[in-house]
Design goal:
The chain is α+β, with helices and mostly antiparallel strands. It has 2 helices and 2 strands.
Length: about 80
């Protein structure tokens, strides 16, 4: 049995972007939590670096609508 598939060009593709929220309580002031997320060097230390992870690159732009990128490799998988 032969079934025809409609041709879908790359120009007709669509992507749906979603947002999500994570809620958590910390036993410190809101200013300290904000600083932990806003400071690129600080966030790199607590979020991107650590045991069994080799950090390849970390970028943080904390402005509204900006991006954050973290490339790391699990050193345990070698």
């Amino acid at each position: 049995m032969h079934v025809e598939t409609p041709y879908i060009s790359m120009q007709n593709r669509s992507v749906t972007h979603c947002t999500f929220a994570i809620e958590r309580s910390y036993p410190v002031t809101p200013e300290r939590v904000f600083a932990a997320f806003a400071d690129p060097a600080g966030k790199r230390r607590w979020f991107a670096e650590g045991d069994h992870r080799e950090l390849e690159e970390f970028e943080l732009d904390f402005r509204a609508g900006a991006t954050e990128r973290c490339w790391r490799r699990d050193s345990m998988s070698r």
